[in-house]
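Hi P.,

Sorry for the delay on this. The queue was packed all week, but I finally got your sequence through. Input first:
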Amino acid sequence: MKVLYVNNQVRLGGAEAVVQQLRRGFSGSYLAVADGKTFPPEVQPLYPRWLARLHHSRLHGLVERLAPRARWTDRAFRRLADAPCDLIHLHNFHGRYATIESLACVARCKPLVWTFHALWGVTGGCDHPRDCRRYLDACGDCPQLGRWPLSMHDDTAANLAAKLAHLAPLPLHVVAPSRWLAGIVQTSPVGRNWQVHHIPNAADAGFTALLERTPRPDRETPVILIVNRNFRDEQKGFPIVQSALALAVPTLPGPRPRLILVGENSDWASLSLVGWPCESHGYVSDSATLARLHREADIFLFASPAENFPCVVLEAMAAGSCVVATPTGGVVEQIEHGVSGILSAEIAGPALGAALLRALADAALRQKIGDAARARAAHDFNEALFLERHRCLYSEILDTWRPRS
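Then the structure:
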């Protein structure tokens, strides 16, 4: 079975981690990507390698005028309809490197699976509508303008209309890592007729192997790990972390725990956490280094206000950390509150601070929860099960698929 995976980037966050797991699991598969400066030899870029290098140089403006990236990648994406593969598995797609019409064109010509890492596919263009329900009607007058992936120009009504016209009629197969996301897709005007398959993300087997640890040292103050793709991105919850830590300060007995910050703009984040001993590591691409930091941590703090089924939480669980998190999206499916993690009462700094204090106050509880988290990750979210579920889905689709005119 030859699968062509399509994604925006080779390496960045959770979506890219999932793609790499699938590529390793299905021999003969390959990857096409739209964005980046350089690409590994085995990756097929939708924008020529030499142009990509120039596009990320001081010649960017000239290259964009002569060979507009989005126009070029859209044509390349359409040609995937004739790609030498059995099936196309699409991941991050925000209409930036190919149009909605091109996606529909490819889906009519080739068996196509689309993993939703967020909700862009059924909204007017936002990844997480939160409390907004405009996507159930017509969108427009968007309250999230300027928040990725939306620009300041409100084209959400036209975006939703295009999805209703071109994507809703197609018999698309969507993979939803969380039941929470599956429910939203199935009840949306765009996705209500699609076939939605619930396949949870998995802890990466290679990374998990690096997490085997000796018992944590008997120390007076625990270590808290915070991993964030970009600390300046409000969507990733750092303001909630700031609030939680500030509220926890007055009630902490003895010295404050040490914080380990991993992710883009971690230096900026550490400067805002006045009075907390911080280690800032920036974006860590090396798996061995990231695994070492996980092994060192006692508590993993997660505070995103809207999330699907974050791989970073699975990694922390596999590391045996006590995860303290906001009850958002699919996180409540990953963690059994009080058993394999601690969930705050609501998505807010004070509630997360209270949950963190509970973990900080009881070393025995942290150990018990960490052990349960590791067992849950190994049993329910292991890579072998993840790959087998995809193998069954691919076979089912190939057995029944017929091209549409």
